[in-house]
Structure formats: structure tokens, C-alpha cells
Specification:
Shape: globular
Strand content: 5-15%
Number of helices: 16
CATH superfamily of the largest domain: Vaccinia Virus protein VP39
Distance between the termini: 59 Å
CATH class of the largest domain: Alpha Beta
CATH topology of the largest domain: Rossmann fold
Order of helices and strands: HHHHHHHHHEHEEEHEHEHEEHHEHEEE
């Protein structure tokens, strides 16, 4: 049995990653920094993601106990990680303090040992009063930037608290059954035989009670099941697919929706992504499922560079966005986004829609998808587009499903709009 990594080692690996994000770098750029060892990688990811989900709270607590500030960025993020560890309750308090102090040596900050020790012990002495005093601060309470809180509250006056709370939770692990290869009821039993509990969700989905590494999933390598959020699975279902159609997945990487389309119907599918490396991930996902698609590295907004003149019957436009509906999976997004970003993305989204409209067949359908909860990227974009295109008609989603799928315990947040030419 593998032993869990020592906490000081986790602090030593996690603090530099958090420091990079606080400095403005994307967490995705440091995906290889979590370590190859499974136990260390898991522990480090928990520490980094937990610290970033609660960054607004940790930052305020640290400012409250460090009257003179923490000038060293790496020591500051070490303390943020330690505060998360203390508030999580996963470790004994004295162990957390001791291990944080010990990590100062491995981080080449030995002179910070006394400082780290003093601040963490002060937090433990004063935590009850500190927490009560800071709870009135909305950034501390909801652990999102203030502008984000205000924007969500204005757009969703009834649901905003639930949405923000969902953004701070650990994300659910959704599974999608490959209907060509596996039966959902039979797969539920296979999971149970492996000691995993899951429940049914939507048409072909399952949600695991506890996340597991993908290699533990029965039949994963054989393409019987894929990991995909339950909300994301609705995209292919909403496309109204039929055998023989020509289909474009315009922003395909990493390929989850691409694979789902191919599982649902025998179609001629072209999958595009502007990033050549991400296209390789699409190919790998399609190959694992035992299916076939044409995958090209191309900018979907420039059809003159990739379109062969044959129109598409269906287009999936899962466009770039603020990703504000999936922040529990990407907690750095909350702190890296800026108030003007939604409007900036909206301009790009309109450009993509205008370009893709050129390659859609008359009578064809385009599904516009974002993983954003900001209205500027959703209804505002589709309404502006339909106003500019006299041959564009917004359709009801199958089953009269709502366009907005708000974050919940079962799925992430998405927006869907089906438009017919």
C-alpha cells in the first residue's frame, strides 16, 4: 500500500503553483507541476485547487493576521495553503503548523520559519473572532471577486447564492455511457462490483458518489465509458442528429462532445480546433471510442482556410467564453478574469457565429453553447446574432429544456441556444 506524502512535501509543491496563478498565470499552464507519483499528484491538486477555490477568504484572513504584510510572494502562498489546510480540518492543527514551517527549508525560505510559525499560531488563537469579523465581507463569504458576485446577483436574483456556493464545491464526476458498446444498468452493476457507487443522470449519464482515477473505471480503455460533465452531455443530445448528416464540431477540443456525437449517430463529422496539440487529444478520444472523424487544426472563424464548399446539416459551436460556469473545476478562473472579459468574449462569439452561418445548410441547425453564466455571452449574443440574420430562427430546445443550465451538485453551468437556418 502506498503511503500518503508528507504534508511539508505537499506544501512545497503546491505553494509555487499557487504563486504562479496569483501572479496571473493560468493553472492549466502548470498541469505538469503536480508530480507523476499518483499520491503526490492527488494531494498537491487538492491543496492547490482548495486554496484557489477559497482564495478570497484566505487572502483576507492573511491580511488580518499579518499587519505588516507578507512581502515574499512564495511565503504568502505557502501561508494561504496552510490556512486552507487548517480550515479544511483534514489535518491536526499542530501537524499543519509544524509541516508548513518545515517546508520553508525545501522552498529555500529558511529565514521565514519563525514568521510562518508566528502567523499560523496567531490565526489559531484568534480564528473565531477573525472569522466572525470577516464574514460580513462578501468576498470572504462567497469566495468570488466582488464584481463577479454583483454580476451574478443582478442576473439571477433568486439563484445567485446557490450558484456561488456551487462554484466553491468539489466538482461531481460525471460519466457518459457509449451506447454503442455498453448498457447503463449493466455498467452500474460493474461499478458496484468494483466498490464504486453511482446514480443515473439524464439520458446516458452517471454521477459517481466519489471521484476515482479514470484508469479505475471498468471499460474506460475499451471506450465503453467517458468522463464528461452531465450538463455538457446535453449538447450532443440537443443537436437532433440523424444518420448520414454532415456535422461540424467547430471548437472541438478536448473531444468529449465530438465523441458523444459519433456515439449517437453515423455522421460525417469534421472536428476543428485552433490548437494543433489539442487536436491530438480529440483524435485520441475518438480512437479510444473506436469511432472515426476528420480532425483538423484550424480557426473556425476563418472558413476560407478549411471549408470545402459542402454545407453542414448540423453545427456545434461550443465557443470560447469566460468559463464562469465551470469555476469549481478551474478555480483560477475566478481570480484571473476581469470585468471586461465577458464583453470581449461576446465580440469573438458573434464573429464565430457569423462565420459558421456561412457553412450551414438551409434548414440546418446550429447549437450555440457556452460554459458561462454571464448573460452578456449568452442570450445577448444569440439575440444580437438573430437580429442581424433574417434567415436565423431561434428554436425551443428538445423537451422545452431551459437555455440556462445553472451550476448544481450534479452538473456545471451551461447555456444552449438552437438556431435554424
Amino acid at each position: 500500500m502506498k503511503t500518503a506524502p508528507e504534508l511539508w512535501a505537499v506544501f512545497s509543491r503546491a505553494a509555487p503553483i499557487v504563486s504562479k496563478v496569483v501572479a496571473g498565470e493560468s493553472l492549466a499552464a502548470h498541469a505538469n507541476s503536480f508530480g507523476a507519483d499518483t499520491a503526490m499528484r492527488g494531494a498537491t491538486m487538492d491543496m492547490v485547487y482548495g486554496t484557489l477555490r477559497r482564495f478570497g477568504r484566505g487572502d483576507a484572513l492573511l491580511d488580518a493576521i499579518a499587519h505588516r504584510g507578507v512581502p515574499d510572494p512564495l511565503v504568502r502562498t505557502l501561508l494561504l495553503c496552510a490556512l486552507y489546510a487548517l480550515e479544511s480540518g483534514r489535518y491536526a492543527e499542530h501537524v499543519t503548523v509544524d509541516q508548513a514551517v518545515r517546508s520553508c527549508t525545501s522552498l529555500a525560505k529558511p529565514m521565514a520559519k519563525n514568521f510562518v510559525n508566528a502567523l499560523l499560531r496567531r490565526f489559531l488563537r484568534e480564528r473565531t473572532g477573525l472569522q466572525a469579523r470577516l464574514e460580513s465581507d462578501p468576498v470572504v463569504r462567497w469566495m468570488h471577486p466582488l464584481w463577479w458576485i454583483e454580476r451574478v446577483r443582478a442576473a439571477y436574483p433568486e439563484e445567485w447564492q446557490t450558484m456561488l456556493a456551487a462554484g466553491n464545491q468539489h466538482p461531481p464526476m460525471g460519466l457518459r455511457m457509449n451506447r454503442r458498446r455498453a448498457d447503463r444498468d449493466a455498467y452500474l452493476q460493474r461499478l458496484a462490483d468494483e466498490g464504486m457507487v453511482a446514480r443515473k443522470a439524464d439520458a446516458s449519464g452517471l454521477v459517481l458518489d466519489k471521484p476515482v482515477p479514470v484508469e479505475r473505471l471498468p471499460g474506460f480503455a475499451a471506450g465503453e465509458v467517458s468522463v464528461q460533465d452531465i450538463g455538457a452531455q446535453r449538447a450532443a443530445e440537443y443537436l437532433d442528429l440523424s444518420n448520414g448528416q454532415r456535422v461540424l464540431d467547430a471548437c472541438a477540443a478536448p473531444g468529449g462532445k465530438t465523441g458523444h456525437i459519433l456515439e449517437l449517430a453515423d455522421v460525417d463529422l469534421l472536428a476543428l480546433d485552433a490548437d494543433a496539440e489539442r487536436c491530438e487529444r480529440v483524435r485520441q478520444n475518438v480512437d479510444r471510442l473506436g469511432l472515426a472523424a476528420t480532425v483538423r487544426a484550424a480557426d473556425c472563424a476563418r472558413p476560407e482556410e478549411w471549408w470545402d464548399g459542402r454545407p453542414f446539416d448540423r453545427i456545434l459551436a461550443d465557443v470560447p467564453c469566460t468559463a464562469s460556469g465551470i469555476v469549481r473545476r478551474h478555480p483560477d478562473i475566478k481570480w484571473l478574469r476581469r470585468p471586461a472579459d465577458a464583453a470581449r468574449f461576446a465580440r469573438t462569439q458573434l464573429q464565430i457565429l457569423a462565420a459558421l452561418w456561412q457553412v450551414l445548410a438551409p434548414g440546418g441547425k446550429l447549437l450555440y453553447v457556452t460554459c458561462s453564466v454571464f448573460p452578456e455571452e449568452n442570450n445577448a449574443v444569440t439575440e444580437a446574432f438573430c437580429a442581424l440574420q433574417p434567415d436565423a430562427a431561434r428554436l425551443a430546445l428538445p423537451g422545452n429544456a431551459p437555455s440556462h443550465l445553472l451550476p448544481s451538485a450534479e452538473h456545471d453551468g451551461f447555456f444552449f441556444a438552437l438556431i435554424q437556418k
